[in-house]
Structure formats: C-alpha cells, structure tokens
Write a structure and sequence with these properties.
Blueprint: H1 5-32, H2 40-45, H3 64-77, H4 79-99, H5 102-113, E1 118-122, E2 138-141, E3 145-156, E4 161-169, E5 179-185, E6 191-193, E7 207-218, E8 222-223, H6 229-265, E9 267-268, E10 271-272, H7 277-306, H8 311-336, H9 338-341, H10 348-354, H11 365-378
Parallel strand pairs: 1-4
Antiparallel strand pairs: 2-3, 3-7, 4-5, 5-8, 6-7, 9-10
Helix pairs in contact: 1-3, 3-4, 3-6, 4-5, 4-6, 6-7, 6-8, 6-10, 7-8, 8-10, 8-11
Bound molecules: flavin-adenine dinucleotide (FAD).
Flavin-adenine dinucleotide (FAD) binds at residues 87, 91, 121-124, 129-130, 154-156, 199, 202, 207, 357, 360-364, 366-367, 370.
Length: 383
C-alpha cells in the first residue's frame, strides 16, 4: 500500500528500533514469561509511550496512522511489547489526556510519557467482560473521599503501572449511567495487585488482577464528569480497537515474513519449497488478506485523525485484522510444517499463540459484530 513519505520514513525508523532493541529478546521473554522492564526508558526516549499525548505533557503526539504503524512494527517482532505499548497509549494515556482535568494531566501524564512508567486501564471484572456495563466495583462518596471496593481482572501492565484508570458504580442506580472513572495510584493502601497470570500468549506482557479494598480515592481523582464513565470507556475503546487491529497486522506480518523466508530458503527434492504452487497460493492468499486488513486499519486511523465518527470502521478493522492475523499465523505454521510446530527456530508458533488475544481484548469478535451491525442497521436504504 502506498503511504505518504512521512509515514514510510516513520515505519523505517520504528522498524530499525524494533529490530535492534526488541526483536533479539522476543523469544526469551515468551519462554521466561518475563516482562521487559528494561525497554521502558528506551521506548520513552523513542516517543513510543506518549504517542497520543501532546508535548506539553511529555508526549510525542503523532497522527493515528503513525501510531498504528508503530504498534504494528513493534508487534511484528514481539507481541508482548506491542500490547504493552498499545494498552499504555490507548487505554492508559488517552483517557486521562481526553477526559482528565489539567491538574490530572500534569500530575499523571509526564510520568507515563517521557518518564518511562506505565499506566493501566481497569475495566474488566470477573462478571463484567463483554458486558462491561455490569461493573460491580463500587465507589461510595464519604465526607472526605470516595471509598472504592471491587476487583478488576486481566489488566495489562497491572503490576508495573504506577497508576491506573478504573471504573466503578457511583450510585445505587442500575445501568450504565451510574458508572464513573477514577485515577488510582498503586501506592495507596487498599490497592492490591494480584499475581501475574499464566497466559497462552503474550507471555512477556504483564497481566494481573486488581483488588480494591476500602481504597480511599481523593475527590480530585474522579476523571471527568460523575457518571460519565461508560461513555468515556466507549470512546476510549473506539480508539483502542484500532491499536489492536495494528497489533494483529504486525503479528500477521511477522508470521507471513517467516513463511516467505522459509519457503524461499528451504528446499524439497532439490527445489525451493516456494517453487510449489500449493505454497505459492497459500502465500498469495496470506499476503492479500494482510493487505486488505492494512487498508482497513489505516483507513480507520485516517478517519480518527479527520475527526469524523469511526466507531464502525474501528470495529471492522479490529474484527477483520485480528481474524486475518490468526489465519495467517495458522497458515504460516502449515508452510513451515514440523519446524513451524516447534518454538525453538521460528517465531510462527509464538505468533500463533500471541495473535489470539486480538480476537478477545477490547471487545471480542462477537462484540465487534454487534457494534458493526448496530451501525449498519442505522442506515436502512430504500431498495
Ligand atoms: C491478555 C489480555 C489482556 C487484557 N487486558 C485488559 C486491560 O488492560 N484492561 C481491561 O479492562 N481488560 C483487559 N482484558 C480483558 C478483555 O478486555 C476481556 O477479556 C474481553 O473484553 C472479553 O471479556 P471476557 O473475557 O469476560 O469474555 P466474556 O464476556 O465472558 O465472553 C465469553 C464469550 O461469550 C461471547 N459473548 C459475550 N457476550 C456476548 C453477546 N452479547 N453476544 C454474543 N456473544 C457474546 C464473547 O464474544 C466470548 O466469545 C484483557 C484480556 C486479555 C486476555
């Protein structure tokens, strides 16, 4: 796909960074389930932790196409780094930047952008995943503070984030109008992080529970308007879905690159495997689907940058790119055959496990279809 020169140059820059600093450790992070804390200052220096935040708050604010390219290139070599960066930018920094007060922005964003520390986003609960409006965590208004109680699960970077945004019910009313968002600090009494989860993929990323017990939250840490939390996280997820689509692009491309290289460099009966039409057709289908997914992710990114409504397009981009990423990773293993099944030579097996998250996180594929169908049905045309 033809990109503007500035985007091509940006891709080259991030690719070089990813190959030098991220790729060499990707396999080890997965095997050891080790979070790459040492990358954080490097990522911050490269501007990759403040991509949705202006310079005033330590960010490197770039357009959404560039942001997608950055997540894609990091994920191409390491899904764990890709999700860490995507979640921090889209789910940690973005809501504070968009909905926070100036004081909140000044207090929390610079540490998370140029400071090389992470922010997390606590929405999912044991009984509120796809149905995030069913949040059970409560924040009760006391004389001097809010008192928060509840559990959030499967939170990216929970252990390493110095602060998080979490949703809670702020009134007895049922439904989504009683949900508000708060900025919470890890050091506060009553803020407990559970043990790191043992996951099938993205094993270098940090995923854990939050348990809030009588957590005292200062009034000034309410984010945005009272009872506006549901709307805020819907807006946040619209953007976040583009970054999950970009992650799927990177993972899929990593698998495709691996399959192409293997087919060209290995041989059967004295001929390269890529001489076989069966392999060629598979590679052609993989490349074609990847290209279509790329148009969708960049297209949704452009719409976001243009300031037009992009909920449907971001849901479509995430849905399609994540399903393509999974198919391409699966086919890459088929092209590699036995060596693809093992994890010690090629990254295809790791990518196959990593890419599955893209069909689950920030709304499963079924939820994307609900979002898309709702939008499609709004515009019934005369036939
Ligand atoms: C690695 C990882 C990182 C994550 N990071 C974060 C994070 O940083 N912050 C955070 O808040 N959450 C995070 N999550 C949680 C993630 O957002 C949820 O897993 C996701 O929203 C789905 O919720 P659930 O797992 O409870 O699935 P469920 O809602 O229990 O869904 C189970 C199945 O039922 C289907 N289903 C549910 N409702 C419907 C419906 N109405 N119609 C049709 N089908 C339906 C789903 O599509 C799915 O197939 C993370 C998850 C993972 C795996």
């Amino acid at each position: 796909m033809l990109l503007k020169k500035e985007h091509q140059e940006f891709r080259e820059k991030i690719r070089a960074f990813a190959l030098e600093h991220v790729a060499p450790q990707a396999a080890a992070l997965d095997v050891e389930q080790r979070f790459p804390k040492e990358y954080l200052p490097l990522l911050a220096k490269e501007g990759l932790l403040g991509m949705v935040v202006s310079e005033e708050f330590g960010g490197s604010k770039i357009d959404t196409v560039s942001y997608s390219i950055a997540v894609e290139e990091l994920s191409r070599v390491c899904g764990s780094t890709g999700i860490t960066v995507a979640a921090h930018n889209s789910l940690g920094c973005f809501p504070i930047y968009k909905f926070g007060t100036d004081e909140q922005r000044k207090k929390y964003l610079p540490r998370g952008t140029s400071g090389g520390e992470l922010l997390a986003f606590g929405l999912t609960e044991p009984d509120a995943g796809s149905d995030a409006g069913a949040t059970k965590t409560t924040a009760v208004k006391k004389d001097t503070h809010w008192e928060m109680n509840g559990t959030k699960c499967f939170i990216t970077s929970a252990t390493h984030a110095f602060a998080s945004i979490a949703t809670a019910r702020t009134s007895d009313a049922q439904g989504v109008k009683a949900i508000s968002s708060f900025i919470l600090e890890k050091e506060w009494d009553g803020y407990e992080v559970g043990k790191k989860e043992n996951k099938m993929g993205l094993r270098g990323s940090d995923t854990a529970f939050f348990h809030f017990t009588d957590l005292k939250v200062p009034f000034e840490n309410l984010m945005g308007e009272l009872n506006d939390g549901f709307r805020q996280f819907m807006v946040t997820l619209d953007g976040g879905r583009i970054s999950i689509g970009a992650m799927a692009l990177g993972l899929g491309q990593g698998a495709l690159d691996c399959a192409v290289k293997y087919a060209a460099e290995s041989s059967v009966n004295g001929k390269p495997k890529s001489a076989s039409q069966a392999i060629q057709f598979k590679l052609a289908d993989m490349a074609t689907e990847m290209e279509a997914a790329r148009y969708m992710v960049y297209g949704a990114s452009q719409m976001k940058d243009a300031g037009v409504k992009f909920s449907k397009e971001s849901a479509m981009a995430k849905l399609y790119a994540s399903e393509v990423g999974r198919r391409v990773a699966y086919d890459a293993i088929q092209v590699l055959g036995d060596v693809g099944f093992f994890s010690n030579q090629f990254p295809a097996e790791r990518i196959f496990r990593d890419v599955k998250l893209c069909e689950i996180g920030e709304g499963t594929s079924e939820i994307q279809r609900i979002v898309i169908a709702r939008e499609v049905l709004k515009s019934v045309m005369p036939v």
